[in-house]
Amino acid sequence: MHAAVIVFPGSNCDRDMAVAFEKAGAKVSMVWHKDTALPKDVDIIGVPGGFSFGDYLRCGAIAANSPICQSVVAHAEKGGYVLGICNGFQVLTETGLLPGVLLRNVNLKYICKPVRLRVETADSAFTAGYQPGQEITVPIAHHDGNYFADAETLKRLHGEARVAFTYCDNPNGSVDDIAGVLSQNRRVLGMMPHPERMAEPLQGGTDGAAMFRTLVDQLAEA
To answer: GO molecular function: any one (predicted)?
Structure first.
């Protein structure tokens, strides 16, 4: 299974994501934001956390217009898999691959701490390693993680079981406690918490490892 991790000038979780994929058994290629094409035979694209272009304008807005993001969108539109974490989630909403927006945290402060998440669905390659209702601990590190969508979008997300994770104790004001959402075909996931930072014992826990392990296993079999 081949994963491509996009690197922007302000990315700071790209290596963490690459290591999580590698430890799960994937081949990983790092792709610079100015590139216009992905490597051949890529199965999944990782859009990592960080501060892609310093969070100017809106978080992820400039990154979403980088040359490589045209290939990311094309990959997703052909049915390819994409995982966006933290700033990567913001980028995916800016490209239109996922609905909603990420606003400033309700307390107007940067938050960096472990949080408990509830797994809302196991019906995706990203969440199949968990049980619905299972609680896991994953760290957050963001200033603009307050997920918002209009009532119609929320009704559709809940009705189609596309809310992947919710916060057990909402840290940022996200509507309906939403921490991560899936695309309509369930092949694109965006989430603010960082599973790649909780993927091996030295990081303080392994609750995030199941996501990468299951992704690699399922996509390798596809």
So the answer is: ATP binding
